[in-house]
From TrEMBL:
It is found in: Cytoplasm. Belongs to the methylthiotransferase family. MiaB subfamily. One of its GO terms (molecular function) is tRNA-2-methylthio-N(6)-dimethylallyladenosine(37) synthase activity. Its EC number is 2.8.4.3. The lineage of its organism: Bacteria, Pseudomonadati, Pseudomonadota, Betaproteobacteria, Nitrosomonadales. Residues 379-448 form the TRAM domain. SMART domains: Elp3. Monomer. [4Fe-4S] cluster 1 binds at residues 12, 49, 83. It comes from Ferrigenium kumadai. It comes from the Bacteria. Its cofactor is [4Fe-4S] cluster. This is tRNA-2-methylthio-N(6)-dimethylallyladenosine synthase. The gene is miaB. It holds the Pfam family UPF0004. It is an enzyme of class 2 (transferase).
Length: 451
């Protein structure tokens, strides 16, 4: 019986969620336990993401590093899942014949069957089909000792932005039934989870069937239903799309205190010309109107975003429009990247004659300004008392605890001198006074235990 599982996760929170589910499936079916040492593993899985530049090459590089482990232990099984697996399929096995299973994001629940078929036949197994919602019907109940948990409410995206591979690797938008999502949340709450993060490639496009009929509920309804559950104390979601920021959803910020004062709303560019080329489906003016409405509903909300710099044809004027938008909105912590063409997407065919060094200089300027704005928000938090959900020990100091504020800032602080009492705070809300701003994090002092 196989016992040890090693998973390397690339990319976004959806992939982190999928990796957790892979571990859940193999624990439930084969009694496997995770290890952080690939040399100890009986099964090694690479859960890939194809959004970043040269994603395929990074996967094959990692596969090359574990090949000697397979040579030393022939019974070791190696699998590649996620978006690169969906995109490349059997080509992965042709290039790396020592790979045993290849599976897509929608077929991770079939892992036990794929591994068993590989053992019985001796042949590599590839399943990159799109069975839509089936995955969620075959996943075991989640297990968590933390106070926070993810719940995927939908798969795929139907927006077809010209730079994005998600519709091709994860399929079009498919929402889980309302009752299924509520059941998952209730099971997590019964385990003591206090903070729920709803996940989807385009999460606010959620349209879930109710009572096995033709009635459909929207994302705003789902948020309010979850917030009404006893035991749910904080509610987040990611990642959203401006086209799906409805008036009903914006109103939830005004009447649902459990929904955090943080909105991650990717804009990608501040130029209407570039947004049109990206096929984003909204203008800069429409985006700013959404932000104004959200801030009217929740004045203290933190707005974060994604930016692509150097999209094909981006001019200096286009880039300056993005910088202008950054000043007008006042974004908090945001993510920005140089455009990299993804095979099979329309943007990969666009002419691009802007030198790399020009793009790199633009990216640095944008990131520097975002960092300044991020620091301004952090400085404004100095001396305030924040309600923090303790998620575990600090990554840099095992004697400290780490948690997250309502506006999604990580805070490190000393817990109780008694280690047992300090560990008991994990999964609970505490109040922390912010005393210091450190790069990308905060430091604080414990005030009192809240819940």
């Amino acid at each position: 019986m196989l016992t040890k599982l090693y998973i390397k996760t690339y990319g976004c929170q959806m992939n982190e969620y999928d990796s957790d589910k892979m571990a859940d499936v193999l624990r439930a079916c084969e009694g496997m336990e995770q290890t952080d040492k690939p040399e100890e593993a009986d099964v090694i899985l690479f859960n890939t993401c194809s959004i970043r530049e040269k994603a395929e090459e990074k996967v094959f590089s990692d596969l090359g590093r574990v090949r000697p482990l397979k040579q030393a232990k022939p019974g070791l099984l190696i699998g590649v899942g996620g978006c690169v697996a969906s995109q490349e399929g059997e080509a992965i096995v042709k290039r790396a014949p020592y790979v045993d299973v290849v599976f897509g994001p929608q077929t991770l629940h079939r892992l036990p069957q794929l591994l068993q078929a590989r053992r019985e036949t001796g042949l590599p197994q590839v399943d990159i089909s799109f069975p839509e919602i089936e995955k969620f019907d075959h996943l075991p109940s989640a297990e968590t000792a933390s106070g926070a948990a993810f719940v995927a409410i939908m798969e795929g995206c139907s927006k077809y932005c010209t730079f994005c591979v998600v519709p091709y690797t994860r399929g079009e938008e498919v929402s889980r039934p309302f009752a299924d999502v509520m059941r998952d949340v209730e099971e997590l709450v019964a385990q003591g989870v206090k903070e729920i993060t709803l996940l989807g490639q385009n999460v606010n496009a959620y349209r879930g069937a109710i009572d096995d009929g033709d009635d459909i509920v929207d994302f705003a309804f789902l948020l309010q239903a979850i917030a009404a559950l006893d035991g749910v104390e904080r509610l987040r979601y990611t990642t959203s799309h401006p086209k799906e920021m409805t008036r009903r959803l914006i109103d939830v910020y005004a009447n649902t205190p459990k929904l955090v004062s943080h909105l991650h709303l990717p804009v990608q560019s501040g130029s209407d010309r570039v947004l049109a080329a990206m096929k984003r489906g909204h203008t800069v003016l429409e985006y700013k109107s959404i932000i104004r409405q959200v801030r009217a509903a929740r004045p203290d909300i933190s707005i974060t975003s994604d930016f692509i710099v150097g999209f094909p044809g981006e001019t200096e004027q286009d880039f300056e429009a993005t910088m202008k938008l950054i000043e007008e909105v006042g974004f908090d912590v945001s993510f920005s990247y140089l455009y990299s063409p993804r095979p099979g997407t329309p943007a990969a065919e666009l002419h691009d004659d802007t030198p790399h060094e020009v793009k790199a200089a633009r990216l640095k300027r944008l990131q520097d300004r975002i960092t300044e704005l991020e620091n301004e928000v952090a400085q404004a938090m100095l001396g305030t008392v924040q309600r923090v959900l303790v998620e575990g020990t600090s990554k840099k100091d095992a004697q400290e605890l780490a948690g997250r504020t309502d506006n999604n800032r990580v805070v490190n602080f000393r817990g109780s001198p008694d280690i047992t009492r300090s560990q008991a705070m994990i999964g609970r809300f505490v109040e922390v006074k912010i005393t210091e701003v450190v790069r990308h994090t905060l430091r604080g002092e414990l005030v009192l235990s809240a819940s």
